[in-house]
Design brief:
Blueprint (H helix, E strand, L loop, with lengths): L13 E3 L9 H14 L3 E7 L8 E4 L5 E5 L6 H4 L3 E9 L1 H9 L14 H8 L4 E6 L10 H21 L3 E2 L5 E3 L4 E2 L4 E2 L3 E4 L3 E2 L4 E2 L4 E3 L2 E2 L4 E2 L3 E3 L2 E2 L4 E2 L4 E2 L4 E2 L4 E4 L2 E7 L4 E4 L2 E7 L4 E2 L4 E3 L9 E3 L4 E2 L4 E3 L2 E3 L4 E2 L4 E2 L7 E5 L2 E6 L5
Parallel strand pairs: 2-6, 7-10, 8-11, 9-12, 10-13, 11-14, 12-15, 13-16, 14-17, 15-18, 16-19, 17-20, 18-21, 19-22, 20-23, 21-23, 22-24, 23-25, 24-26, 25-28, 26-29, 27-30, 28-31, 29-32, 30-33, 32-34
Antiparallel strand pairs: 1-5, 2-5, 3-4, 34-35
Helix pairs in contact: 3-4
Length: 368
């Protein structure tokens, strides 16, 4: 009633959808519109045969199979309650037929409400033809409780996983794999159990995801591997590996054939090709070049209590285990730090810095 004055009177049919039937597909809507056009009906409704029609309005047909009326459950007789064909809440009307039927509505029912379903009875009573398209039961699932929401989620998840498997993706256990509608996955990728692919995540071909991986708005290149780790709003290049038990926070961009091992955390980090970050490191607000080795326990100390600062590690550098890099700082091409060093000054290309605080003790050739 509220929307009708806003619709153009151009002869096109009016499509009416419920807001709580999230599994309705475009294909079903196209089929409904096609039936409406070919049948010449004043109204065409969507119905479904379901094992348990509790809570739904029933579609009542005559002995010839023609739609006679729709009855809401609270208004059903005992015989009508046994009918398993339900009204799905999706309709196509001729514009003028809908306008006339809406004018005639009255809230004379058990709930004192205006039922759009009564328009069907009104049209039938005046000799108008009404058609019905029987859809799959799962297309018409409504959500009126948290239990029904969970059931609808399970059906939608199965559809999304079926689509991926039809496209060549191997999903080891669909029951424990969760994929959002916007996710794209390339062929021959394998997704292991307890993995979550969320948002606008895009995974390339021949990847291994999981078990226990979580990707949120992430981009993963061909042949990459993410195991028991999370990647949020970041990118992983071709052939790189992450995990187990690492976390890539927003702003992280990992290059090609990078190795990120266990218990590494990266935030707002750019990592060059063929770099290795194998164990227990925190790398935040950092740019790391190619072929760099990050030793276990390395920390970029990027926060001075007031501001964040950047660290730059140039190509071919070797960062010794348990190195503290006090930002802002730059480690030059081919430079090295000794294990346990606290580096608070730039290290020149080819330099070797050791100690607490670290000092440059010698230079090595920068071409390594």
């Amino acid at each position: 009633m509220t929307a009708l004055p806003l619709l153009p009177q151009d002869g096109n049919p009016v499509l009416v959808l419920y807001g709580d039937t999230p599994l309705l597909t475009a294909e079903t809507i196209h089929a409904l519109l096609a039936l409406h056009r070919t049948s010449g009906s004043a109204a065409t409704l969507l119905s479904a045969q379901v094992p348990d029609p509790t809570g739904y309005g029933r579609v009542i047909r005559d002995h010839d199979g023609r739609v006679r009326k729709i009855v809401e459950e609270v208004d059903c007789s005992a015989e009508e309650r046994q009918v398993s064909e339900i009204n799905a809440g999706t309709y196509v009307f001729r514009h003028e037929a809908l306008r006339e039927a809406l004018r005639a509505l009255a809230p004379d029912n058990a709930q004192g409400e205006y039922y759009i379903t009564d328009t069907i009875g009104w049209l039938l009573a005046r000799g108008h033809q009404v058609s019905a398209l029987v859809a799959r039961g799962e297309d018409t699932v409504g959500v009126n409780s948290r239990q029904e929401l969970a059931a609808a989620e399970a059906l939608m998840r199965r559809r999304l996983l079926d689509r991926l498997m039809e496209g060549g993706v191997t999903i080891i256990d669909p029951a424990t794999t969760y994929v959002h509608a916007g996710v794209q996955v390339g062929p021959d990728t394998v997704i292991h159990p307890q993995s979550y692919l969320e948002g606008a995540t895009a995974v390339g071909a021949r990847c291994t995801i999981g078990p226990q991986a979580r990707l949120v708005d992430a981009t993963v290149g061909d042949g990459a591997r993410v195991v028991a780790s999370s990647v949020e709003h970041g990118a992983i290049g071709e052939g790189s590996t992450v995990g187990p038990y690492s976390r890539l926070r927003p702003g992280t961009r990992v290059g090609r054939f990078v190795e990120i091992g266990n218990f590494a955390e990266l935030k707002n980090a750019v990592v060059g090709d063929h770099t290795k970050i194998h164990h227990m490191s925190y790398l935040g607000d950092v740019t790391i070049g190619a072929r760099v080795n990050i030793g276990a326990g390395t920390v970029t100390c990027n926060y001075d209590g007031k501001r964040k600062h950047n660290t730059i590690i140039d190509d071919d550098a070797f960062i010794g285990s348990d190195t503290m890099l006090i930002a802002p700082i730059r480690i030059g091409k081919g430079a090295m730090t000794g294990a346990g060093s606290v580096v608070n000054k730039d290290v020149p290309p080819g330099g070797v810095a050791v100690g607490v605080p670290a000092r440059v003790i010698r230079y090595v050739p920068s071409e390594r």
